[in-house]
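Practice problem: predict the structure.
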Amino acid sequence: MLRYTLMRLGIFAGCLVVVWGLVYSGVVPRGLGSSNGMWMILLALLISAPISFVALRGERDRASQKIAPKVDRMRANLQAGLQASQSQEDVADDTARAQGQTS
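Answer:
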């Protein structure tokens, strides 16, 4: 997962450098007033997202294969805990109803 994140950051940094060069060479318009930095970051994000989606598909699949068993295990533990809690509530409810009927 760290490898995927670093690769994604690398693609973003490369796009930011390209956008910076295009803005300062006048090919791409500058932002309004002091928003030039934010303009370049947003433009770099917009460009890097589809590039990352296509270029890092294999790395994303490998990362998801590592994460999927952990997520499944956590989901199973959560469901077991919910079932145990639900059965405790059922027992408490049955006990309360039984006590209410005998009084």
